Each structure stands twice: as structure tokens, then as C-alpha cells.
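User: Hi! Is it possible to get a structure for several chains at once, not just one? Here's what I have:
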Amino acid sequence: MNIKLYNKISNKGLSRLDKSLYTCSEDVENPDGILVRSAKLHDIEFNKELKAIVRAGAGVNNIPIDRCSEAGIVVFNTPGANANAVKELVFAGMLLSARPVFDAMSWVETLNGDEDVATLVEKEKSKFVGNEIRGKKIGIIGLGAIGIKVANLALHFGMEVYGYDPYISIDAAWQLSRKVHYAKTLDELYEKCDYISIHVPLNGKTKNMINDDAIAKMKDNVCILNFARGGLVDEDAVCTALDEGRMKNYVCDFPNGNILHKKGVICIPHLGASTPESEDNCAIMAADQLSDFLENGNILNSINLPNLTLDRSGEARITCFHKNTPNMIAQISQTISGEGINIENLINKSKDEYAYTMVDVNSKSLDAVIAKLDAVDDILKVTQL
Ligand SMILES: NC(=O)C1=CN([C@@H]2O[C@H](COP(=O)(O)OP(=O)(O)OC[C@H]3O[C@@H](n4cnc5c(N)ncnc54)[C@H](O)[C@@H]3O)[C@@H](O)[C@H]2O)C=CC1
Ligand SMILES: O=C(O)C(=O)COP(=O)(O)O
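Assistant: Yes, the chains can be modeled jointly so their relative placement is included. Here is the combined structure:
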């Protein structure tokens, strides 16, 4: 099978793909699978053999999910695999806002060593006094893999922590310290907090969620930390608030022309997940999920389909990615049994508009049945494994 790489993927992950089964490179034609990080796939035309796209990372806003679903392409990500790296950089950003380290270092760079540096430093250091973060209030929007880690670590820094996430998962809630205050509304969080850190996905509902209205409700001198996606924040609103002295800093992992060189903006070139540890974690998860799907049809951490695994039985497996419409399971099983093939095991699960069915059968001669299933309305992709 051909796996096309749209970004550099750690060898720790790629080496888990059996070389006798997979060819992985940036140049393969007609891929069965794609491994990608932040490369934008919106304008890519997908070949009909493509069965899966795995995002080695969290955010999937670079992938046309709806178009993939309609073409029966399963999209995966690797939840939590890079969360620790992002958490650590969020605190680096917060400390760079609290203490004017950059300005101070730039000043030190201007010294030429001819003067009495030690005396000069002691004389001038009062120009670079900053604040401590202990005792300050931080609001965290989005309590998923990263938000939880930021919230729990902020408590260790002695901060008062407010969390907002109306969709928090049960697993996430278990991991969150009970010392984190539950913000029932965003307004409550905006009104109270000195630091606001955003950790939600970018989608139609969250785009520009930090806008003029939101910033107007925040404390003067607030610092906004955005290690999630640039599109979550209305940059014009941020620039106005900085110009008017209503905001201390905007710390952002997604620089662009609107905020470059702007006083009060601290830009980092999308380094949140750029550690070998995270790159390895993401690549390993991505490779394992991709191979288990391509070889066995099992699904773990998909965006457009539910998790579904089934131990292998029978002679072969048929998988169907289909619409979540009435009579699909009946049509699939009738088509198979109509060819005189016995079903050993069948499993089906749906997620919103789409569903997935795996069928283990007692025959390997499946060309006719695959062709018939392919022709069923609302079946988007059929595979024999
Ligand atoms: N700077 C970087 O390199 C990285 C950036 N990211 C970004 O961070 C985002 C979050 O990553 P994870 O925590 O791993 O994802 P996650 O999926 O574990 O958590 C996202 C959380 O946001 C919550 N949420 C969704 N909509 C919300 C809303 N309107 N208001 C409040 N909460 C909402 C969800 O319930 C979920 O708990 C990713 O989608 C990605 O865009 C992720 C990894 C690296
Ligand atoms: O995982 C994410 O959402 C990220 O933003 C990390 O992006 P990257 O894999 O470093 O290009």
C-alpha cells in the first residue's frame, strides 16, 4: 500500500509500518493512506483508492472533513499526543508576558563589555521589573487534552484557575483538579481573569470567538494566550485593545502579517508541538492507527466515524463506510448472503450522518459481492481485507 507524506513524520512512527506492506514517501502516486501534520489539504483532489487520512497531531482544520466523508475517506487524529509540549510552551509564553525578559535580554545585548557590566546591570535592572504569576487568575477555554494540563499546572504555579468547556468529556473531567473553578459562562471567565488561554478547535462555531465584544468584557491589562489557532481570535480587535492600552499582551503561536511587529504581541512560529517527544508520540499513534485501519479495518480516534474494533474471524473481512440511513445493515447482509456467503461476525456503529459496518465472512472470493455493495446507494466506500 502507498502512504503519502504531506509533512515530515518522525521515523519512530514510520518504522512501525511494515516495509513489505507499505511504501511511504512524499512522492507516491494514488495513495491508500495519507499522513499529514499542518499541511493544508483543502485544495487537494483525492484519488479513489484513498481510504484514510491521519493527522499526526490534534487540529484537523487543515483537512476537508465533509468532502472526505462524502468520499468514504476516514479521517483520524492523535488526541493528546502533543498536549504536554503545548502545555509547557503556554507557560513559557505566560512567563514572557509576566516578566519583560525579551526587552531585558535585548538591552543586555547592547552592552559591549568595555563598561563595568556588573555595575551597570545592577543600576539599570529596575527598568525590567515584572510580575509573578502566583496568585493571578487564569481562565482556560476548552478543557480537552491541553486545557486540562494547563489548568492543573497553573494550580501548581499558585494561580487561581477558572475553566470553561460546555462539552467536557467524562474522561477529561476525571483528570481535572477539583480546585479548578467551574466557569458557567465565558463572561464570568472574561470578567475575572488576568490571563486567558484558549484550547478549543477552530471550526464554524469557534472562529473569531475572541472578538471586540469578548475583549470589552475582559479586565484591563489582560494577557490572551493563543496556542490553539489564529482564526479563533479577531486580530483587529486585539490590535485595537493593545493600541488603547486595554490589553497587556497577545501571545500567539500563529504569526501573520496583521500582528507582526505589533507592540504587545509575542509571536512564536507555531512551535507548540515541535519537540522530538511530541513528534515521536504523534507519529507512533498515527502509524499504529493507520496500519490497524488499513490491515484490519479497525477504527480508533477518527473524526468522522466512531471507534470500532473487531477481532478477526472467518476467511476475510468486508468494511463499508456508509451513510447513517435506514436499511443499510439489511442491505449489506442481504447482498452478502445473496452470494451464498456466510457472515461469521458483523458490527456496526454510527456517528452523526455516517456509519461503519465490518463483516467477517467465510469466503475469500468476494469480487462479485464487493461490486454489488459498491453499487448500493449510500455506501461510500467498500473494502475487502
Ligand atoms: N500550537 C500547537 O502546536 C498545537 C495546537 N493545537 C490546537 O489546540 C486545540 C486543542 O487541542 P487539544 O486540547 O489536544 O484538543 P481536545 O479535542 O482534546 O480538546 C478540545 C476541547 O475544546 C472543547 N470545546 C470545543 N468547542 C468549545 C467551545 N466553543 N467552548 C469551550 N470549549 C470547547 C471540547 O469540548 C474539548 O474538550 C486543537 O484543536 C488545535 O487547534 C493542538 C496541538 C498543538
Ligand atoms: O497538533 C496540532 O493541532 C498542531 O497545531 C501541531 O501542528 P504541527 O504538527 O506541529 O504542524
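The pocket of 2-oxo-3-(phosphonooxy)propanoic acid (ligand 2) is lined by residues 37-38, 57-59, 82, 272-274 (CB under 6 Å). The chain has three domains: 1-81+275-304, 83-267, 306-385.

User: Great, thank you!
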